[in-house]
Structures are given as C-alpha cells and as structure tokens.
Amino acid sequence: MLGGRRPIDTAYVARQLALDLRHADSLERAGQWDGAELRYREIALDVPGRPEGRLALARADEIGKRDALLTLREHIRLSAETDLSDATREFSALQAARTSPSALAPETLLERIGVESLRRRAASPDSTQRDAALRRLSNIAAWVSFYEPRSFLAAGEPARAAASLRAAAMLGPLRGESCDLVRRTAEQLPREDAQRLPPCS
Known about the structure:
single chain; mainly alpha; about 75% helix; elongated
C-alpha cells in the first residue's frame, strides 16, 4: 500500500473498462450514436493515460463527426428553439387574455396561442416535432382547463373562467378537477351563461 491506500486492482479496472467499452460499442452498433459518443468520452475521462482511454477518445471523436449525428443535433437544436418560441407565445397570449378588457372568445385565445399550428405539427411524421407539439398541447390544456379558470375564480372573474373552460373543451374532454371548476363557475354566472359551459365527465 502507498500512502495508506490500497493498490489499484488492475484486473478489476481492466474488466470494468472492457465492460464499459462493450456497452459503448453496443450503443454505437444500435445506432444510438449520441449515447455511444458520450459513453466513449466518459471512458476517456476516466482513464486518460491508458490505451483504452485513448481508443475511447478516438472513437468518440469519430462518431461526433458523423454527418447523421451532426444533422440530428442540429434538428434537436432547432426543435428546442421552436419549443421555446412556442412557450413564449403561449405565455404572452395567456397574459394578454388575463389583462384584456373582457374575456376573450375561446377561439380567439386558442388562435393566439397557436393551437392549429401545434396540431399540424402533432400529426407530423417527424417524431421530434410531433412529441414537442404534443407536450405543448398538453401544457396548454392544463393551463386553460385548470390553472387559468382557478385563478379567475379566485379573482372573482367567472366570465373569464368560463371562457377558459370553453377553450379547454375545444382541446379535449374536461375531466377530474376541471369538473369542479365548471360547477363553481356555473354557480357564479347568470343562468343563461352557465348553460353555455362545456359538459364534464
């Protein structure tokens, strides 16, 4: 022992490195180049002075230069930018709806949020675009079916709560806690307006 520490178990290290390299290689062969490159770089950082580390770094560098991986990363980057732009637009539309002189028509709110564009992207064969659009639509549904009407009711604005709930019903059936919000909104509206609230299951 040196300095009170156990000597390195070189046989164990070699076995572990072999396992790690096999795992990285299996990711590469499966076409999971992003994961393979990351795993190879981790190995290179773990054992920079060993031949396995130099081999892993060379493999990571080679994978990282592949056109398909570069294209995928650019696609992911652009998708993230689009997602941020969508989220910003949604926030602005909801903020404007909160401060407008009167409750926005449900169709107007959904148009300003950009729901039609998201629905088109949700039907895309591109899984990155499709999944991002479905996440955004799910977030919007949560806001207009729960968070917004709840806030409007707390502020004594049942007409805005009703408009938000009608917008939510245009995205899909209202369920769960939204049903309680529909009931509470109906209690605070004139009968004619309450009858225009969406059904809830």
